[in-house]
Amino acid sequence: MNDLCADIGWKSINHHGEQLCGDHVDVVDQNDNSTVVVLADGLGSGVKASILSTLTGKIISTMMAEGLSLEECVTTIAATLPICSVRGVAYSTFTIIHLINNESAELIQYDNPLVIMLREGKNFDYPKKELSVEGKTIYRSLIKLKENDIFIAMSDGCPHAGIGVTQNFGWKREDIIDFMEVAVIPGFTAKTLATKLVDECDRLYDYRPGDDATACVVRIRKREPVNILFGPPRNRDDCDRMMSLFFSKEGKHIVCGGTTSSIAAKFLGKPIKTSLNFDRSDVPPMAEIEGVDLVTEGVITINKVLEYAKDALDKNELYEQWCYNRDGASMICRYLFEEATDINFYVGRAVNPAHQNPDLPITFNIKMNLVEELSECLRQMGKRIKVSYF
Description:
The protein is of the alpha+beta class. The protein is built from ten helices and 18 strands. The protein folds into two domains: about 5-220, 4-Layer Sandwich (Phosphatase 2c, domain 1); about 225-390, no CATH class. The chain has helices at about 45-65, 70-80, 175-185, 190-205, 240-250, 260-270, 300-315, 320-325, 330-340, 365-380, and strands at about 5-15, 25-30, 35-40, 95-100, 105-110, 115-120, 120-125, 130-135, 135-145, 150-155, 215-220, 225-230, 250-255, 270-275, 285-290, 295, 340-345, 385-390. The protein is elongated and about 70 Å long.
């Protein structure tokens, strides 16, 4: 067993004028270290395409996760989905990325643009074996994984981007490779990389996409723990125990909240260096404590982080804000969204007297709800989450 894990993210844009996307991505965990990722592209666009791709993705991902063979999956799809009366085609195209024990990747590709693989930041020409299943030509590959390997699966709306608008023959595969080789240099998350690719497709379509376009990115990386301390314990006698557990954990350490910072500084025997610099008007300034990677305000900052997290799981329109800004919320986002794979929350249940002011919309329940909502968002991002209350 190795210490690798997969960061998985995707984004779609709809065919102009359609409310539903004809592409669908499914991610199913077989166990802690094995995952099935399916990108399905339904025939045409709109409602019919959405139904076809969703059924295809669900059938394949579920059957593959249960260990059934590719032949059984394809046969089931052919038997399940209706035949198009015009084209005589029964089901959508698909790409499968099967991560096995985070040691190898099995790629299975049918009629979608071939997966682009980047190794050490450059295009890697992986081996492909041609198979015939139910009369369909399918490409199969088995690849030994290395840290920083990146797999980019696409629907055909990506290479078709801009045909007859900004490009004569669409966005060629080699041009997409060049674009992504530059994009991966900063070490963005899989979600951000997928967003950059699809946003560029949207631009090439002049923001009126002639087809559904989806990119799904899988980034192989080492596990990185991050620990976040939020609020003092209910019982003051638990302060040392809470701090001992927090600071003994491997990985980066983030402390959120004024009282919490004071307790952490006292435990470490270090002063707090405060700042009055507001990088954003809606996020309080940060502080510094030697031995702590990041020190921020509490509830207001975490609420902003939650706002960014919800957007990241949806349209990811705010990623350029938290990617580049230097305020406390943006810094936490970079730690949690980009760096962390395993996140340990240490949450104090003490009631902050300042929050009892009836003029403030902050209550103890809101604080607890913030932790629960943020934890759930991070789980949906594929993070391992552990929450300990004190």
